[in-house]
Amino acid sequence: MEFTHKVCRTAVVAISCAGTSTLFSILDALASVGRDWEMLHGVQPKPPVFEAALLTLDGEPYFDVNGRLITPDGRLKDFGQPDLVIIPDLHFAPDRQPPEAFDKLIPWLLQAHSDGAMMASVCSGALLLAATGLLNGLDATSHWSFCDVIARRFPEVRMQRARILIPAGEGHRIVTAGGASAWGDLVLYLVGRIAGLEEARRIAKVYLLQPHSEGQLHYASLLAGAQHEDGLVAEAQMWAAENYAMASPVAAMAQRSGLSERSLLRRFRKATGHTPVDYIQTLRIEEAKQMLETTDMPIEDIADEVGYSETSSFRNAFRRHVGMPASTYRKKRLSLIPLLSSEPDA
Questions:
Q1: Is the pTM of this model over 0.90?
Q2: Taking a C-beta distance cutoff of 8 angstroms, is the pair 126, 176 a contact?
Q3: What does the alpha-carbon distance between residue 239 and residue 217 come to, in Å, rounded to a whole number?
Q4: Gap between the Cα atoms of 23 and 27, Å rounded
Q5: What is the predicted pLDDT for the residue at 228?
Q6: Predicted pLDDT of residue 268
Q7: Is the pLDDT of residue 176 over 90?
Q8: Number of helices and strands (H, E) in the chain?
Q9: Could you give the CA distance from residue 268 to residue 276 in angstroms, rounded to a whole number?
């Protein structure tokens, strides 16, 4: 497929907490379209498809979260109207207030979108996109540790914790991607949409990119983002962490708290966003994930160990929480560390 479109002017937005590896991976991959595949095959490169620039509010060099000096290409306000804006992952604790730069970036982002730009975010960058209001009433995704935070702060955004990539809005002009490594999914989508599917396939081959078609639930820590100030509920959570495998743990938790189960449910849900039953099940599944990753214990024994009397109930709960069967999860997690599966040569 030959390129017939105009060059896509792309603003990759950075602030000091932006993920540097994601920034430059995106810039490198976009610059490769029409060039690197051709170079590897000894044919004439095509004209550039993306005119991508790393831009900040002031255009000045800055130190990233790892103390490395980063020099942007210029200022956002000097770039002119972009066709595409990409917000990378942002490194800050989910329960903390966003960086002050958010307030200065939001007007520029809103104007760029109003003037026709497609908006995209990677990982926690969805929090900045949500703060603009552009995600209101839309499905969106982010890194699993930020999804609940975004949902609480911006209840009009329909967060989809399991999804890796979500195009949304009129004309699909807003695209959110999950964890930091989902930059690859986002780039392949954007290249396919703007330059054609054949170019997306070529970039996937050049960069060895494999879409996360199974979603992101199996990477997630199910207990992330549970910050609150209710001391009684926090004490109940601490007790549950040690006793989740016992029979009827919610009744025991309520008895220890001095509340009825109904009262505990209301208070627990207000503090954590989850019911006590859901929380116990989350603890059990999280422990089961650890056991699947680190032991060869049969799945039936793991189910019993974490508190399920019926293996079928465990399997159903695991698939619901993690997005895949326990047996598949074990294979996938072990495949991440193949070099540890054998002893080194003597």
A1: no
A2: yes
A3: 26
A4: 6
A5: 64
A6: 87
A7: yes
A8: 14, 11
A9: 6
